[in-house]
Amino acid sequence: MTACATPDGIWCEVVARSPEAGGEWYLGGHWADCAPEAMAWLRRQALRLAEALEPSPVASPLPVRALTPLGCGDVSPAQVFRDWADDHAFQQVQRAALATGRPISTNARGPDRVDGCDEVDVLYSLSARAILRRRLAPLPAPAAVGPAPLRLITAPRHHPALETRQPVYEEISFTNSDREAVEEAARELFNHVKQLGVRLDDIDVIDPCDGCRRRDYRIQLGHLTHEEVTVLNSALGRRLCDAEDDGCGDGPAT
After folding, report:
1. Using one digit for the tens of pLDDT, what is the confidence trace for 119-155?
2. Contacts of 111 (CB under 8 A, 6+ apart)
3. Distance between CA atoms of residues 158 and 146, nearest Å
4. Among 121, 131, 13, which Cα is nearest to 75's?
5. Is 180 helix (H, G, I), strand (E, B) or coil?
6. Regarding predicted confidence, which is higher, 186 or 138?
7. Where are the domains of the chain?
């Protein structure tokens, strides 16, 4: 028996490290079935980490007076992660590498204050790696002992009809209509929810893969804050009440 390694999922994690402070902080982890799911999770974590490091004055729960804008020469780890989240072409390259079993990562560093220390350098890392499980493979069957059996070699038959027949090719299209339909549905859902007062900025379309449990396109809505869920619930509740009122007015008057 010989041992061989086969993929058994992808482990993703977010870690912050500071050698100067002598600390390492585990910020999150996720077990993904396939490379598209892993990349979608890493992208959401990159935006979450960027918002935590440099909150937007519009969406931040902190008061505006508590936020200090960065100078032109200041190091911005959050901007590194925002740029990476918007670079879909490079994410396709990383996804292809991850699908072949190679590890990937996205890293940024910058100064920060750690409890008990002065300002120190902190390294933020988003990474994913395939988990390989070693399994025993059977040995090849032993070769047969003795002389090889004789085989009768015959000349190929001559078919004149095959020489003059022209090949007939079927017209096919390489357009991925399935993904286009899913993207259109996701775009329509985004605009419907936007009209209710909530932006699904983390919405994403996940491609199917052989290793996924559900082999079809999936639409991930991302993470919503408590305030966003409250706004969405209130808007949906008003729509339901309006629909019920309209339904009651359609019947005959008594």
Report:
1. 788 899 999 998 877 665 566 666 655 666 666 666 5
2. 75, 119, 120, 121, 122
3. 36
4. 121
5. helix
6. 186
7. 7-56+75-133, 176-233
Q: Return mean pLDDT, the chain.
A: 76
* Residue 66 to residues 208, 214, 240, Cα–Cα distance (Å): 44, 45, 39
Alpha helix ranges (H) inside the chain = 35-53, 77-86, 88-99, 160-164, 177-195, 226-248
**What separation in angstroms does the CA of 239 have from each of 145, 156, 194, 235?**
80, 76, 14, 6
152-180 pLDDT tens trace: 666 556 555 555 555 555 554 545 677 78
Q: Which residue has the tokens 């988003």?
A: 126
Backbone angles phi, psi at 249, to 5 degrees: -80, -10
First vs last C-alpha separation in the chain: 85
Q: Which of 23-27, 174-178, 196-200, 215-219 has the highest mean pLDDT?
A: 23-27
CA-wise closest residue to 80 among 102, 49, 119: 49
Residue that is written with structure tokens 């559900």 in the block? 214
Q: How does pLDDT run across 57-76, given as a tens digit for each residue? A: 555 555 555 555 655 556 68
Question: Residue 1 — very low, low, confident or very high, per pLDDT cuts 50/70/90?
Answer: very low
Question: Distance between CA 105 and CA 79 in Å, rounded?
Answer: 16
Q: Which helix (H) or strand (E) holds 125?
A: strand 119-137
The CB-based long-range contact list for 100-108 (8 Å cut-off, 24+ gap) reads 101/7, 101/130, 101/132, 102/130, 103/127, 103/128, 103/129, 103/130, 104/128, 104/129, 106/42, 106/46, 106/80, 106/81, 108/77, 108/78, 108/80, 108/81
